[in-house]
Amino acid sequence: MKDESRYDVWLLGRSQDGGLPHVGCMQACCAEARKTGRREYPCALGVHDRVSGALALIEATPAVEPQLAMLHALAGVSGCVRRPVEAVLITHAHIGHYAGLVQFGEEVAATDHLPLFVTPQMANFLRANQPWAQLVTYGQVDVHEVDPGKSCEPIPGLEVDFIAVPHRDEHSDTVAFKLRGPERTLLWAPDVDQWGRHDGLLADLLDDVDVAYVDATFYDGRELSGRDLDGIPHPLIVETMDAWADQAAARPGVIRFIHMNHTNPALHDSAIVEKIERAGFCVASMGERHSL
User: Fold this and answer.
1) What pTM value is reported for the model?
2) Smallest Cα–Cα separation from 148: which of 116, 187, 117, 126?
3) Architecture of 7-284 per CATH?
């Protein structure tokens, strides 16, 4: 069967907002990473349109510079300083997802009317707060508002659905994305509250997708001693595996875990990773590629 896929999608990071090593962490996971030079970037995606050559970035993380460099190298495309990609999409206003926008500002890249696709609430947050507002005023970014439940086309032919998901909304609402190419559909859901807080949410998100990147901040919750998980109610990997065991066994590798906290044993323990993969799930790898 002929492959009619048009878009290459690369995972540019798989960790929670702070990455690895994590500021202030003196545990073995981060102490060892500092010694060895290991780096895990906050979760982000890069998209390359093989027809037009266009690039899109999903999430502007604090590690946006090395992630853009990675995207350019993987795609074999050199973005110019003032237009490193043709579009940026952001899911919500937590720092691992939008803080990298400052690198597009006057003091650094000074991008030229870079299209930025966000929800109206996220757009209001950016316009109302510095230094983000300066990006808009100076024309470094052009904000395109997309209502949850609607779609946009950030680069030619790529349809992206904005899907409302429950998550902490101190500054904006939160969306997941479904990226629809001619052959396949990919889900990007790095931040959601526990599945049980919204009946049927996981099934809705996984409907009609071929690749699903989902929130896996914590493995079973025990790795974050001293914190009240009610205030950071991300799904646990073990809960996702229990809820979707039959489907993962039938379609192994579709559900791919991202947004892992620096303490998550899925980032460090090969036995845990093997257990996850035996069940038909996958711990995503930085640099992995899927075609749509």
Assistant:
1) 0.93
2) 117
3) 4-Layer Sandwich (3.60)
